[in-house]
Amino acid sequence: MPTAGMRKQINRSRRLLDDHLSHPDALRRQEQRLASWGEPADDFLQTAGLVLGLALYQVQRDSARAPQTGEELWHNVTRLLDPEAARPDLLAGLPTDLDPDTLRQIQALRLASAGISPAAVIRWIRLLRTAHDVAEHLA
Fold first, then answer.
1. pTM higher than 0.90, yes or no?
2. Which whole number is the average pLDDT over 90-114?
3. 57 burial type by CB count under 10 A (0-12 exposed, 13-18 middle, 19+ buried)
4. pLDDT digit string (tens) for 56-96?
5. CA–CA–CA angle 122, 124, 128 (5° rounding)
6. Are residues 68 and 78 in contact, defined by beta-carbon separation less than 8 angstroms?
7. Do the beta carbons of residue 61 and residue 1 sit within 8 Å?
8. How far apart are alpha carbons 111 and 130 in whole angstroms?
9. Which residues contact residue 56 at a Cβ distance below 8 angstroms, ignoring those fewer than 6 apart?
């Protein structure tokens, strides 16, 4: 999938996250999480949308040979985002000609997922869980 497809998946995923948070229960739960984590909402949710977009991109790229139904697609995205599961590198094989802000965010995610500090690992797991919640809701 070319860079345009990657950008499309990121934008789609951020809209899906916004749609998910339009439900009062999901919004309340996420607001409580962000408050307890001390995370700024806008930055965290933009990054969680990016994580969801990366997972969606990877699943669609890996399944290009065997098309999936919508339900199968979201089950595979949910599995990829499960913080407890062993998974292939979510950040491998991505296009390199994305906009600078997205590339900076991806680099920060690579560092966080590599466990450079306990705080980074905790944030990575929180991002995975947030993106996982959205994918699970769609599955």
1. no
2. 82
3. buried
4. 888 887 766 666 777 888 888 888 888 877 666 777 777 77
5. 115
6. no
7. yes
8. 19
9. 9, 12, 13, 73, 77
Q: How many CB atoms lie within 10 A of CB 76?
A: 20
Burial category of 30 from C-beta neighbours within 10 Å (exposed 0-12, middle 13-18, buried 19 and up): buried
**Phi, psi of 113, deg, nearest 5:** -70, -20
Query: Which single residue is written with the structure tokens 């497809």?
Result: 5
CA 81 to chain centre: 7
C-alpha span between 41 and 100 (Å, rounded): 21
Contact 122, 113 (CB under 8 A): no
Region 87-110 average pLDDT? 80
Report phi then psi at 21, rounded to 5.
Answer: -80, 0
Helices (H), 40-117: 41-62, 70-81, 100-113
Torsion of CA 111, 113, 117, 123, to 10 degrees: 110
Instruction: Name the token pair of 139.
Output: 């599955």
